[in-house]
C-alpha cells in the first residue's frame, strides 16, 4: 500500500537527517506528501506524532553517545536542538526517568527506529507479510564475506541495534572459528552449523535469546517462521537459497509456501532463477526441501556489560580453538587447520575445480581472523591481539598464494606448489595453540 510505504520512507528520511532541522512540514515535503495528510497518517501508523518521534529518537541517540562515547551533556543538548542544558535534561528525564549523567545502556531501553510491519489478511486466505527496509546482505565487500555475520548485522539493525560487521564477527566468535569436513571437500566449511555454539552466543551478547530449530515438517517450520515475521523479528535460515549457507528471512507469501529475504547468492542467476519480490527481497518457492533448519530470535532481555561480553566471548573462543569436533561431520579449531593442510597434501582429484572451490570457501573463515585484533585490543588483551595480528598477516598471505578468482588452478597439478599454503595453515595452527595457552 503506497501510503504505508510513504510512512516508512518518512521514517528513513528522519533517520538519515536526525540532527538536522526537522518538523512535520519538512519531512512531508521531503517525501512529496501533503503535510496535513502526512501528519495524520504518520500518527495513525506509528502511534506518535512526527514531533514526538523525532524527539524520542534524538534523545535515544544522545543517550547512546553519552553511554558509549563519553560525550558531554552540553554537546548532546545542543545537538538535539535544545536551547539550554536544563531543558535537555528535563526532556531526557521524562523519557528515561533518569538524569543524562546516570544513563546506563544495559539498564534503560532506548526508543529504537520504527520498522513498519504490515499484514493484510482475507481474500482467498493466502497470507503475506514482510519486514520492510532491512539492510541488504551481499558480498560487495570482499573483506567481509561471512554469510552468517552479514545476516546477523542486518537482523540486529532491523531490531534497532547498533551493529557492524567487524564487531559482530569478533563478539560472535566467527573470527575464531575454523571447521573442515571429516570426509571429502565441503564447500560449506565456513558455515556456523559446523560450530552450533556460535548463534546462541551471538544474540545473547546483544541481550536476545536465540534457539536453533532443526528441520521438521513443513507445517511446523513455516508456522514458526511466519510467527516470527508477524512479530517483526527476522529469521536466520540454513540453505534456503541454492549454495547459500546462511541467509536472512524477512518475509513470507502464499501462507509460508514462499519465503522472502536476502542472500549473497540471490543476485547470481545460475544460483537463483526465481524473480525477486517487488520489495527487492528474494522469493523462494519450494524452500523447505533444501532448508537445513533455522535460528529463531527471541525477546530482548538485559544486555550484558562490556566486561561480561568479553569474558563470555573468551570462553567461547577457547572452545572454538580447542574442541576437535563440535558436529560429527567436521573437525574444528586446531584440528580443522591440520585437516585442511592434510587435505591439500593427501586428497585426490581429477581436476582443479573441486579443491580450488574448497579452498576458496574455507578461506572465508580465515579472512575473519583480522577482526579479532581490535576486539582484543579494545578489551585490554594486547598479548592476544598481537598473536592475532600475526595470524591476520598469514591469512592475508593465503589469499595471495591462492587468489579467489580461479587464476591459480595450475598449482593443484603440483603438490609442491601447495606446500607453502599448507605451511602457512600450520603456522596459523601453532599461533592459535599459543593463544590458547594464554586463555
Question: What's the structural blueprint in terms of helices and strands?
Answer:
Elements: H1 2-16, H2 24-30, H3 35-46, H4 50-68, H5 73-79, H6 85-96, E1 119-120, E2 128-130, H7 147-158, H8 165-172, E3 179-181, H9 197-204, E4 208-214, H10 218-230, E5 235-238, E6 246-253, E7 258-262, E8 282-285, E9 293-300, H11 306-322, E10 330-332, H12 333-346, H13 353-367, H14 371-378, H15 382-401, H16 415-437
Helix pairs in contact: 2-3, 5-6, 7-8, 12-16, 14-15, 15-16
Textual characterization of the structure:
By secondary structure, the protein is of the alpha+beta class. It folds into three domains: 2-102, Arc Repressor Mutant, subunit A; 136-165 and 193-300, Cysteine proteinases (Cathepsin B, Chain A, Alpha-Beta Complex), CATH 3.90.70.10; 306-437, no CATH class. The chain has 16 helices and ten strands. It has helices at residues 2-16, 24-30, 35-46, 50-68, 73-79, 85-96, 147-158, 165-172, 197-204, 218-230, 306-322, 333-346, 353-367, 371-378, 382-401, 415-437; strands at 119-120, 128-130, 179-181, 208-214, 235-238, 246-253, 258-262, 282-285, 293-300, 330-332. Helix 7 packs across helix 8 (165-172) and helix 14 (371-378) packs antiparallel against helix 15 (382-401). The longest helix is centred in the last third of the chain and has 23 residues, at 415-437. The protein is globular. The model has no long low-confidence stretch (mean pLDDT 89).
Amino acid at each position: 500500500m503506497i501510503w504505508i510505504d510513504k510512512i516508512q520512507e518518512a521514517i528513513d528520511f528522519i533517520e538519515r537527517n536526525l540532527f538536522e532541522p526537522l518538523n512535520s512540514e519538512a519531512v512531508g515535503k521531503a517525501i512529496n506528501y501533503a503535510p496535513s495528510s502526512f501528519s495524520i497518517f504518520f500518527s495513525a501508523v506509528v502511534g506518535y506524532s512526527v514531533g514526538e518521534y523525532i524527539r524520542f529518537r534524538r534523545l535515544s541517540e544522545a543517550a547512546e553517545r553519552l553511554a558509549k562515547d563519553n560525550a558531554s551533556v552540553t554537546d548532546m543538548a545542543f545537538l538535539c536542538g535544545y536551547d539550554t542544558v536544563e531543558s535537555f535534561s528535563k526532556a531526557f528525564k521524562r523519557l528515561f526517568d533518569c538524569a543524562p549523567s546516570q544513563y546506563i545502556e544495559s539498564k534503560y531501553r532506548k526508543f529504537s527506529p520504527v520498522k513498519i510491519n504490515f499484514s493484510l489478511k482475507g481474500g482467498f486466505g493466502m497470507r503475506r507479510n514482510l519486514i520492510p527496509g532491512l539492510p541488504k546482505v551481499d558480498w560487495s565487500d570482499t573483506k567481509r564475506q561471512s554469510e552468517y555475520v552479514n545476516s546477523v548485522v542486518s537482523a540486529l539493525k532491523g531490531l534497532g541495534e547498533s551493529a557492524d560487521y567487524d564487531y559482530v564477527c569478533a563478539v560472535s566468535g566467527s573470527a575464531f572459528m575454523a571447521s573442515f569436513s571429516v570426509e571429502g571437500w565441503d564447500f560449506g566449511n565456513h558455515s556456523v552449523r559446523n560450530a552450533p555454539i556460535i548463534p546462541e552466543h551471538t544474540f545473547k551478547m546483544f541481550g536476545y535469546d536465540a534457539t536453533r530449530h532443526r528441520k521438521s515438517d513443513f507445517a511446523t517450520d513455516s508456522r514458526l517462521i511466519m510467527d516470527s515475521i508477524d512479530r517483526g523479528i527476522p529469521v536466520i535460515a540454513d540453505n534456503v537459497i541454492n549454495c547459500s549457507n546462511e541467509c536472512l528471512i524477512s518475509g513470507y507469501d502464499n501462507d509460508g509456501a514462499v519465503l522472502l529475504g536476502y542472500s549473497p547468492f540471490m543476485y547470481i542467476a545460475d544460483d537463483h532463477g526465481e524473480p525477486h519480490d517487488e520489495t527487492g527481497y528474494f522469493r523462494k518457492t519450494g524452500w523447505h526441501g533444501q532448508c537445513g533448519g533455522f535460528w529463531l530470535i527471541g525477546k530482548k532481555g538485559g544486555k550484558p556489560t562490556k566486561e561480561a561480553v568479553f569474558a563470555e566471548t573468551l570462553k567461547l573462543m577457547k572452545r572454538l580453538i580447542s574442541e576437535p569436533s563440535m558436529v560429527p561431520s567436521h573437525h574444528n579449531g586446531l584440528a580443522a587447520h591440520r585437516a585442511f593442510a592434510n587435505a591439500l597434501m593427501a586428497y585426490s582429484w581429477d581436476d582443479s575445480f573441486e579443491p580450488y572451490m574448497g579452498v576458496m570457501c574455507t578461506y572465508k573463515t580465515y579472512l575473519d581472523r583480522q577482526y579479532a585484533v581490535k576486539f582484543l585490543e579494545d578489551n585490554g588483551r594486547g598479548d592476544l591481539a598481537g598473536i592475532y595480528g600475526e595470524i591476520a598477516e598469514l591469512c592475508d598471505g593465503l589469499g595471495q598464494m591462492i587468489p579467489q578468482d580461479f587464476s591459480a588452478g595450475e598449482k593443484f597439478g603440483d603438490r609442491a606448489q601447495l606446500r607453502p599454503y599448507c605451511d602457512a595453515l600450520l603456522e596459523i595452527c601453532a599461533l592459535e595453540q599459543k593463544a590458547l595457552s594464554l586463555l
